[in-house]
Amino acid sequence: MIRLALISFLFVAGCSHSIQSAKVSKDNSEMLYGEISEEQLYFDYPNWKEMEVQYNPNPDVTAKISEFKGNLNVQVFLGTWCGDSRRNVPRFLKSIANTDNLHLQIWAVDRHKKLDNALTEKYQIKRVPTFIFLNDTVEIGRITEHPVKTIEEDILEILNRS
Q1: Of 42, 60, 98, 127, which is most buried with the most CB atoms under 10 A?
Q2: Whole-prediction pTM value?
Q3: Is pLDDT above 90 for 99?
Q4: Where are the domains of the chain?
């Protein structure tokens, strides 16, 4: 019996995904910092996932986003300490959830909106969140802090420019 329990435990432990917190202490508080994944963001900040689930984007607009045929890179700069990031990043991620042609790199910045790799200077990040859409290395659009319309409408407008 003990042997069966031990085997079961080892099987479950071996099959479970072992993600660990990536929070760091910076600027006298805990936050994510550096390149992160969507999975890491939601692991460390599960309330952000709740924000995504609660958001109801316009289905007509997200259907058009999901039909996007181009290939774009999107640099996402956020602050886990920032209310605008907490609101708009989950909305952004939900709006593009059915799109395979947008390749994300997510960067968590400190309260000074800086990273160790100088990307915030390269892309002139002054506010977060900032979503930068790139065709190769050429910027075709960005959403900074707040969308002009809705996040999904602003995304679609940028995609239509490419």
Answers
A1: 42
A2: 0.86
A3: yes
A4: 30-161
